[in-house]
């Protein structure tokens, strides 16, 4: 699927989201296009520090963030679509309050690491 990050330097968010989608699909033994996680949620709400549209983010820092198990929920792209700009604080608060359901399977984080 072709995706457009617009004028925002969020390529790391897109790359990590695609890798996570692949890992979840393999784990669940389902078709590759079955899951579409939100780049917007990861890039502009979940990560600390958030991805900057101007300077982007370090791939290593984002992978370390995930490796530490600091992503508790990840909604779909349909629920939290990519805007090409930072999300409002209100939208992020709603995301972090559990308003949208997570698409991550409930498995111990160590299983993801292999």
TrEMBL record:
What InterPro entries does the database record attribute to this sequence? Papain-like_cys_pep_sf, Peptidase_C1A_C
Instruction: Outline the extent of the Peptidase C1A papain C-terminal domain.
Output: 3-86
One of the protein's GO biological processes: proteolysis
Q: Which domain of life does the protein's organism represent?
A: Eukaryota
Matching entries from Gene3D superfamilies are given as:
Cysteine proteinases
Q: Which GO terms describe its molecular function?
A: cysteine-type peptidase activity
- From the Swiss-Prot or TrEMBL record, give the protein name: Peptidase C1A papain C-terminal domain-containing protein
Q: Which organism is it from?
A: Tetradesmus obliquus
